Amino acid sequence: MVKKVRLVEIASLLAIIIGSIPHEKCFVFGCDTPLSFITDSLEILGQAMVPSVMLVLGGMLAEGPYVSKLRLKTTVGVIVARLLVLPVFGIRVIGLADKMHLPIADDAMYRCVLLLQYVTHSAILLGAVARMRGFAFSEVSVLLFWQHVFTLFSLSFYIFSCSKLV
Predict the structure, then answer these.
(1) Residue ranges with strand state E in the chain
(2) Counting C-beta atoms within 10 Å of the first and last residue's C-beta, which end of the chain has fewer, N or C?
(3) Is the pTM of this model over 0.70?
(4) Cβ count within 10 A of residue 130
């Protein structure tokens, strides 16, 4: 496990170095570069990630919403915090940043993406991390289940609200 973490750290450091030096970046990224096979391979893997993540989500949600040891109050509290409190806070932060002229001016898509990152449910890979660590997997899967259910309603409301704000 320690070797995996160190390899990820080394790979991240190399990615930062290669991405920040223009000469090195031209050596890896592009159509006719010597190391373009690396970026082509990563692009193919990236295209396969969406179906893979959907399989992971299906596996997590297959256990159903009644397996965890969480109380109803805890589940409701997490859902309210994630789908009601955080979006309101995020909309206010984006509005304040807009008044201070921090985001890109007159770019509605940029503002919409900033707002949508606050209003979506927790990451699907949270369950994968819980499974990998062997800790509270059933609780995480139940929380993700109910967040996905209530995101159907909250996301449509917030997209409508964001369209009026942007």
Answers:
(1) none
(2) N
(3) no
(4) 19
Is 7 within the bounds of a domain?
Answer: no
Higher pLDDT, 72 or 29: 72
Report pLDDT for 129. 75
In tens, the pLDDT along 85-98 reads 988 888 888 888 88
Distance, in Å, from the CA atom of 138 to the CA atom of 130, rounded to the nearest integer, reads 9
Residue 155 domain boundaries: 51-165
**Tally of CA atoms within 13 A in the half-sphere of 131 that contains its CB:** 11
Q: For the chain, what is the domain count? A: 1
Whether residue 73 lies inside any domain: the answer is: yes
d(CA 41, CA 99): 43
Cβ neighbors of 136 (< 8 A, separation 6 or more) are 130
Residue 85 gets which letter from DSSP? I
| Residues 6 or more apart whose Cβ sits within 8 Å of residue 77 | none
CA gap 156, 80 in Å, rounded: 16
